[in-house]
Specification:
Layout lengths: L9 E6 L10 H14 L3 E4 L10 H12 L5 E3 L11 H6 L3 H6 L7 E4 L2 E5 L15 H12 L6 E5 L19 H10 L2 E6 L6 E4 L12 E4 L17 E7 L3 E10 L3 E11 L2
Parallel strand pairs: 1-2, 2-3, 5-6, 6-7, 7-9
Antiparallel strand pairs: 1-10, 4-5, 8-9, 10-11, 11-12
The structure holds fe (ii) ion.
The site of fe (ii) ion (FE2) has 6 residues, from loops.
Length: 274
């Protein structure tokens, strides 16, 4: 159960890996729209993989229809499934044409909700098939982007590929150069990173996997909200994450989909801010 919204707390709703196209689950699509209408978050963060196969504009169109049907602001970032795979020339020369047309013209949008700044970072690269990377240039740009905002008390990054691994599953690898990226995020005052890609809900303290960070960075991974492709590593199937932000802590609540009942809150973590 979330702290009272009337207290002026900022509420983010984190959805991910929608994967419009087969095997999308329409009941989940309707249920997450209902949840968004009910919870009325300040911002919906959608951490990538809107489509199953980027080569089919119809899948982007379905994702666009869904995003447009939401009454709340949405901050999207691209996932690896947004890049064409069937046409390598298209992939290298025009990787984001359909994404920009149907999802968002900006690959790294930002949104300010009260004193919370959410910054999109594009971890996909046309030359990487499945994995992700944040370049040094993107990190310097991030510092400049943050510098343009005064009076921000909370900095959040949304990026598709996780900067942490799931140690119990060796095939789930963090982004390349994740240690460098997390170090730069910590230096820039980013406290929270929202990602997807693994189709598995998780809350990870970056200091559990990396030494030498100048401050703690919390990494929240949302499971797939609407796809029938849920990882075998995931025990709960489809879900999304609600995060309410107060000056001292992040309240993270996972919501999982229960057949015939919609999304229900099932697991909560309270993260003390440093
Ligand atoms: Fe992905």
């Amino acid at each position: 159960v979330h702290p009272d919204r009337s207290a002026g707390l900022t509420l983010l709703l984190h959805i991910s890996d929608l994967h419009f196209g087969p095997p999308i689950r329409p009941d989940r699509v309707h249920a997450v729209r209902d949840a968004i209408e009910q919870m009325r978050p300040d911002l919906v963060v959608a951490s990538g993989d809107f489509v199953q196969r980027a080569d089919f504009p119809s899948q982007f169109l379905a994702a666009q229809d869904f995003l447009r049907s939401l009454s709340r602001p949405v901050l999207p970032v691209p996932g690896n499934h947004e890049l064409p795979v069937l046409n390598p020339v298209e992939r290298l020369l025009h990787p984001y044409t359909l994404y920009r047309r149907y999802i968002h013209p900006d690959l790294e949008p930002e949104h300010r909700a009260r004193d919370v700044l959410v910054l999109g970072v594009n971890s996909t690269k046309p030359y990487l098939i499945h994995g992700g990377l944040t370049t040094a240039g993107q990190l310097s740009a991030l510092i400049r982007r943050i510098g343009r905002h005064d009076g921000v008390s909370t900095r959040v990054v949304a990026t598709h590929h996780p900067l942490v691994g799931l140690p119990e599953y060796s095939s789930w690898r963090p982004q390349a150069w994740a240690s460098r990226t997390l170090g730069a995020f910590a230096e820039a005052g980013v406290e929270l990173v929202l990602s997807g890609h693994f189709h598995s809900f998780r809350v990870v303290r970056a200091s559990d996997q990396y030494r030498g960070l100048t401050r703690e960075v919390f990494v929240v991974l949302s499971g797939s909200t609407t796809s029938g492709r849920v990882a075998r590593t995931h025990q709960r199937g489809n879900g999304f994450v609600a995060i309410s932000i107060d000056p001292k802590r992040f309240h993270v609540t996972h919501h999982f989909y229960e057949e015939g009942q919609g999304f229900k809150a099932d697991e909560e973590a309270v993260l003390q801010r440093g």
